[in-house]
Amino acid sequence: MTEIDQTLDMTRIPEHIAIIMDGNGRWATDRGLDRTFGHKAGLDTVKKITAECARLGVKYLTLYTFSTENWNRPAYEIEALMGLVLSFIEMELFTDNNVKFRLIGDRKRLPDSVQEKIRYMEELTGKNDGMTMVVAMSYSSRWEITEAVRQIVAEANDTASPADITEDFISRHLCTNFMPDPDLLIRTGGELRISNYLLWQIAYSELYFCDTYWPDFDETRLHKAIIDYQGRQRRFGKTEAQVENEQ
Q1: Which of 80, 113, 158, 194 has the fewest Cβ atoms nearer than 10 Å?
Q2: Is residue 181 annotated as part of the catalytic site, yes or no?
Q3: Nearest to 218, CA basis, from 195, 188, 191, 190
Q4: Other beta carbons less than 10 A from residue 220's beta carbon
């Protein structure tokens, strides 16, 4: 267990951290290894960061694990990733750290064995009341918003009116409706894009990009990202003076 950075303000820990875990494949390639070795190394980082976020008091940790676009990757890599998912959701990490497990994404596309394990873990950890770890798998924002619109249209009736379609109404139809929007979005791996991830939810999230590949992202780098977040003023469209007067 690492020590908590003394410059970290424990009274201002983000309630919800979302992470784009990028760089597994490049980490492996740089070492002359197959890309699947990078995913295995990335799984070790998931364990460390999940445990540390729970220790810090983060309430929700959402990890971009596998996008709908990732189904276009080579079959052997997809098979390896699904195997890692099966091993991941058998970990004692959730029970040891009082973490609840949830999944968002198009479950129907996942192998039956993965779907079964997901249901098992969600039921097993359902009563845990510490941090909720949300895995975004077979997920993309455009898929999520499309599904929300389909649901809204299917529920529409003669009494519905345009005035009923509010931001809150749409949010309730998204698959993230059980948790608050992310306070902080971290992307590893050096890329400066969002990659179809939580587009609706991160409208006012603070964004943090770093060059570190995900397998090398550790507790110290997590602390650095949170300290950077704590140094920002979140205004949500207000002026600096208005925010300061409210404090």
Answers
A1: 158
A2: no
A3: 188
A4: 11
Helix segments in 156-196, DSSP class H: 167-172
Q: How confident is the model at residue 83 (pLDDT cuts 50, 70, 90)?
A: confident
Active-site annotation holds for 245 = no
- Selecting among 9, 24, 34, 70, the annotated active-site residue is 70
Q: pTM of the predicted model, to two decimals?
A: 0.91
What tokens does 25 get? 């494949």
Whether residue 135 contacts residue 104, with contact meaning beta carbons closer than 8 Å, is answered with: yes
Q: Given 22, 97, 181, 183, which residue is catalytic?
A: 22
How far is the C-alpha of 116 from the C-alpha of 107, rounded, in Å? Answer: 10
Burial class (CB within 10 angstroms; exposed 0-12, middle 13-18, buried 19+) of 234: exposed
What is the phi/psi pair of residue 206, to 5°? -85, 135
Closest by Cα among 131, 61, 66, 142 to 96: 131
Smallest Cα–Cα separation from 189: which of 216, 226, 229, 228?
Answer: 216
